[in-house]
Specification:
This protein folds into two domains: 69 residues, Orthogonal Bundle (Arc Repressor Mutant, subunit A); 198 residues, 3-Layer(aba) Sandwich (Rossmann fold), CATH 3.40.50.2020. The strands form four sheets. Strands 6-5-9-10-11-12 form a six-stranded mixed sheet, with helices on both faces. A two-stranded antiparallel ribbon has the order 1-2. Strands 3-4 form a two-stranded antiparallel ribbon. The protein is built from eight helices and twelve strands. The chain has 276 residues and is an alpha/beta fold. The radius of gyration is 21 Å and the shape is globular. One of its GO terms (biological process) is negative regulation of DNA-templated transcription.
Length: 276
């Protein structure tokens, strides 16, 4: 039990809530933690709620009753989301990022913890109301996005591998066709990694036709699991709707047109704001 001044208590309560997102915390937890009256804790939570919602950094949901409590839902401020997405888009437009085969070098962006935290919070905001059990991605570049998103949703990460790892025990493997190059690849998932009938959020760094996402969806069928959502950092529009294998998804950045000769491209925000 800590005896703190109200100002210090507000700071620590806010930190406690942000470190435990999407978790129902009984008011008695704070009463016992700070040795304060329940009415004082309720007043503190009202202040935190007002600030969070006023700054658009999150929602504080209160559930009444004996089994009730408070739950913090992280949000990404809309007035900050667009400038950040536009900033990433400007970096993506750098000519030396264009690689053979229509790919783009974004590994340096994925290696920035602060940026990944923001991106993860954006996806957590977009899927805050979805019933999700875990976040899934395919190794390797989608891993930073998956962990950042899962942290803000307070969920585990499930990692699909390109090759079976013997230390993970028995696994389910499937072949899938890359939507962009029509080549066959393999992905595998340990049987112990995912519970059957789970609801899964799929995330990745880049999508053209969506072959990798479609492969993960087919893999989920083997576990009788459900796709609860799909999120991608960058999508390319150089495929037709008929070629695209995934239709329902949230993207942060959209590459519209690319001139391979001049290495110039047109980039705009994805459909993220359509889901907010």
């Amino acid at each position: 039990m800590k005896k703190l001044k109200r100002s210090a208590r507000l700071v620590e309560m806010t930190q406690y809530l942000t470190l435990n997102p999407h978790t129902l915390i009984p008011l008695t937890t704070f009463v016992e933690r700070y040795g304060a009256a329940k009415s004082s804790i309720s007043e503190d939570l009202a202040i935190i709620k007002e600030v969070c919602e006023g700054e658009e950094t999150g929602e504080l949901l209160t559930l009444a009753g004996a089994a009730g409590g408070v739950k913090y839902i992280p949000k990404y401020p809309s007035h900050k989301a667009l400038p950040l997405i536009e900033q990433i888009g400007e970096q993506l437009k750098q000519p030396d990022r264009m690689l053979p085969g229509g790919y783009y070098y974004i590994t340096d962006l994925l290696g920035q913890p602060g940026l990944m935290n923001d991106i993860g919070r954006m996806f957590a905001s977009a899927f805050a109301d979805s019933d999700i059990d875990c976040v899934m991605t395919v190794e390797t570049k989608g891993i930073p996005i998956a962990y950042a998103t899962a942290a803000h949703l307070n969920l585990p990460v499930v990692l699909v591998r390109r090759d079976h790892v013997v230390t993970e025990g028995s696994a389910v493997s499937i072949n899938y066709v890359s939507g962009s190059h029509k080549s066959i690849h393999t992905m595998t998932l340990a049987r112990r990694a995912l519970k059957e009938r789970s609801r899964v959020l799929l995330v990745d760094d880049f999508m053209r036709a969506g072959g990798t996402f479609k492969g993960m969806m087919d893999l989920l069928h083997e576990f009788d699991a459900t796709v609860a959502g799909v999120g991608v950092l960058v999508e390319s529009e150089d495929v037709s709707n008929e070629e695209r294998l995934v239709q329902d998804y949230v993207s942060l950045i959209r590459v519209e047109t690319v001139d391979a000769r001049s290495k110039q491209m047109s980039v705009k925000p994805g459909n993220y704001f359509d889901h907010m």
